[in-house]
Amino acid sequence: MATEFAKLNGLGNDFVFIDNLDGATALSDDQVRALCDRHFGIGADGVILVDASPREECAAYMHYINADGTLAEMCGNGVRCFAKYLVDRGIVDPRSGSFVADTLAGPKSISFEVDAQGALTEATVDMGAPILDPALVPIDAQPNAATDDGTPCVRDLPLESPWGTFSFTAVSMGNPHAVCFVDDFAALPDELFCDPAAKSLRTFDVDRVGAFFESHPAFPEKANIEFAEVRDGGISMRVFERGCGETLACGTGTCATQVAAALTGRAPRRGTVSLLGGDLRIDWDEGGTVLMTGPAAESFRGTVEL
């Protein structure tokens, strides 16, 4: 069956979109994997079905599926692309400036900016409050710290690997994240770098180490794994996404990293996080919610046989 699709991306984190407002499309795991295959399919980090929402206040429901066919609770870059898909097609009035999107992690309020043609250029998503209680992240570990308001959390927890000890701060943004701040790349084994003579976050083997910790016993539902460094107050980050592998950007991972940096005293609650695909602005406001701001773009449209 020939099915229309659109390819969108948020800082290079890319998705195949299919309009399913009529509820006529149901994808198997094999079909999702085929669509996301970068050699034999369209190529993407995941598939997003634009479904009708049962919630009256929501414009539509974002049904996000990872490239391996597993369902994901939330995707920060995906929800900004979701906003662009709805605004650019008039499903959401471009003049409104805001709407509510439905997701598996609950409704998300989104404000947006458009260009002279009414196409969305940038969106700010209220990602809600980070979940820090280890039982809810989830991470199989006892709290070893607490926030200013007394919320228990797991901060800089050491976990062993074949390459030594890495320490993680656990944060959920509707999906589980484990953030590792690497203070000294030079101290890590040569085998973890594509260029051992120039050890850095950019030459670090994220796929290898990320895959190991994604499925670590400490994470009962697996986890998205972030490796980050802070220099002069600025954060740089790379991410191994659960069920996908390394991606050029991760919205929820960026939020989790800013939260983890604040929790560990490495950076303030507001800042810009630099990823391989570009920058996102994150604000963990005093009310406790996390606001994520960044661009979304459409690459192309087409039809595909399902």
Task: Provide a short characterization of the protein structure.
This protein is 14% helix and 39% strand. The protein is mostly beta strands.
Annotation keywords:
single chain; 306 residues; mainly beta; two-stranded antiparallel sheet; 19 strands; 14% helix
Fold and architecture overview:
The protein has four helices and 19 strands. By secondary structure, it is mainly beta. The strands form two sheets. The protein has a 17-stranded mixed beta sheet that branches. A two-stranded antiparallel ribbon has the order 8-9. A hairpin with a 5-residue loop joins strand 8 and strand 9 (152-153). The model has no long low-confidence stretch (mean pLDDT 96).
SSE order and pairing:
Layout: E1 2-10, E2 13-20, H1 29-36, E3 46-51, E4 61-66, H2 76-88, E5 98-103, E6 108-114, E7 120-126, E8 145-146, E9 152-153, E10 157-161, E11 164-172, E12 176-181, H3 206-214, E13 224-231, E14 234-241, E15 245-247, H4 251-263, E16 270-275, E17 278-284, E18 290-295, E19 297-305
Parallel strand pairs: 2-3, 4-5, 12-13, 14-16
Antiparallel strand pairs: 1-2, 1-19, 3-4, 5-6, 6-7, 7-18, 8-9, 10-11, 11-12, 13-14, 14-15, 16-17, 17-18
Based on CA inertia axes, which overall geometry fits? globular
Unreliable stretches covering 5 or more consecutive residues = none
The arrangement of helices and strands along the chain is: EEHEEHEEEEEEEEHEEEHEEEE
In what range is the share of β-strand residues?
35-45%
Amino- and carboxy-terminal Cα gap: 5 Å
Helix/strand-derived class? mainly beta
Number of DSSP-assigned strands: 19
How much is the radius of gyration in Å? 19 Å
Average pLDDT level: 96
What count of helical segments does DSSP give?
Answer: 4
Helical content class: 10-25%
Biggest sheet, open or closed, and with what strands and sense?
A: 17 strands, mixed
